[in-house]
Hints:
Two copies of one chain form a homodimer. Chain A is of the alpha+beta class and 244 residues long. Chain A folds into two domains: 14-77, Winged helix-like DNA-binding domain superfamily/Winged helix DNA-binding domain (Arc Repressor Mutant, subunit A); 83-239, Chorismate lyase-like (Chorismate lyase). Chain A has eight helices and ten strands. In chain A, the strands form three sheets. Chain A has a six-stranded antiparallel beta sheet with strand order 4-5-6-9-8-7. In chain A, strands 1-2 form a two-stranded antiparallel sheet. A two-stranded antiparallel sheet of chain A has the order 3-10. In chain A, strand 8 and strand 9 (224-233) form a beta hairpin. In chain A, helix 1 (14-27) packs across helix 3 and helix 2 (40-47) crosses helix 3 (51-63). Mean pLDDT of chain A is 93; it is low at 2-8. The interface between A and B is medium-sized, with 30 and 30 residues. Chains A, B: InterPro entries: Bact_HTH_transcr_reg, Chorismate_lyase_/UTRA_dom_sf, Tscrpt_reg_HTH_GntR, UTRA, WH-like_DNA-bd_sf, WH_DNA-bd_sf. Chains A, B: Residues 12-80 form the HTH gntR-type domain. Chains A, B: This is GntR family transcriptional regulator. Chains A, B: It comes from Marinomonas phaeophyticola.
Amino acid sequence: MTQENRPSPQFKPLYEQVKELIIERIVxxxxxxxxxxxxxxxxxxxxxxxxxxxxxxxxxLTEENVVFRRQGVGTFVSKHTLQEMLFHFFxxxxxxxxxxxxxxxxxxxxxxxxxxxxxxxxxxxxSDDKVIRLHRVRIINGDPCIRELIYLPHHYFxxxxxxxxxxxxxxxxxxxxxxxxxxxxxxxxxADLSNATDxxxxxxxxxQPLLEVARVxxxxxxxxxxYSISRAHSxxxxxxxxxx
Amino acid sequence: MTQENRPSPQFKPLYEQVKELIIERIVxxxxxxxxxxxxxxxxxxxxxxxxxxxxxxxxxLTEENVVFRRQGVGTFVSKHTLQEMLFHFFxxxxxxxxxxxxxxxxxxxxxxxxxxxxxxxxxxxxSDDKVIRLHRVRIINGDPCIRELIYLPHHYFxxxxxxxxxxxxxxxxxxxxxxxxxxxxxxxxxADLSNATDxxxxxxxxxQPLLEVARVxxxxxxxxxxYSISRAHSxxxxxxxxxx
DNA sequence: AAGTGGTCTAGACCACCAC
DNA sequence: TGGTGGTCTAGACCACTTC
Lengths: 244, 244
């Protein structure tokens, strides 16, 4: 890898090119979640750059949670099974007590269907594309408190709708089964009143205030891979945001 | 500044010490918001470290929005007047259209009072400490849509409650008038129903769903300096979170 | 032309971990 | 003991801004 003597047509720093190459190999399955990457010096030799340049690329990947590093051991591809990663994308917390147990989930419905306009827009799908819709209720400490509708493009998730038993940790499942790593997400939060369906599934009355979180999630390679609506009864829960 | 030959009692990297020294000087008013810092080499000479170590400190400060850098020009202390900084701490957005105009504000009430337990707990105050409470309504595109209750420790904000005209960009005001720079914040979001006061001030009916955002904000030096409750009618607004 | 931050390299030494 | 990442330094060269 060389920078060459070009003036500046779409100049990209070497460490960004290194970073992209590493992401490519993770996306391509060369290095799988949990596995160790070659050492800094090995990568530097492989790519014909200096160790310092590899270090800079790996450090930015560490900040983005793509890899994690352990001194004396090595650099590893992040897995969504890690506690920190699970709670990184699950932002509901109990009001007072520390972060609760991870929620379990009851599946209400799982089907393949045409993409509604709202869903097609969010996932940038054509109007005749199919999506898999998962409808489930999250249960925390025995209480049903969040109702989720999750939409996945059929062409990315193949036969997911035929799975006998879906685990409740979906992001980990996407990663293990489809090599799709959720990398970032945008949540849009509004308030709404519980309707009849909410009331029945969350065991509350109609007309209660609910938090509604609409999420669009993007994979490591930049594809839009999940649209979800979470409706939460906030009597015991809140959504927490740290602004830094 | 030296690392010395100590084994490892509370070892701190040089670049962190450099970073802390720079923050100290910003907090102390040596370098004020908008002003330029000495160059990397000047700082390196002042602190007896290498330019690379100063660079690392400045880069982390850049990521944390404490300073910003312009190639060929210099490194500057961040100001809350910058568009990006304003919207960094204001997370409400219009549903479809791009980010709206900055809101203005109508002040409903401004007084000094004893800290209620909830407020004292959030700001870590003693029960007999005084707080300044500002009650106002945010207006976006002519619509009153957010009602805010803002609590400030009296001993940090002195005579703020005597101000004739408070600007609506408060964080910029804190910075200019008290040299208090809001650095990070934790928002806890819940849903609630509008009460009589909400209804009157936001020009809606009682029993409508509202987003309630409780914020605890921390200054550059780590002091808890603001507790606020924002109650927003989410018909036209949502709260947006980018998880990366 | 001079000065700034941005990139890239090379090398030294340290702290941590596994064997 | 050997290999890993973590810190720190020194220096070269580039890109950008200002004068």
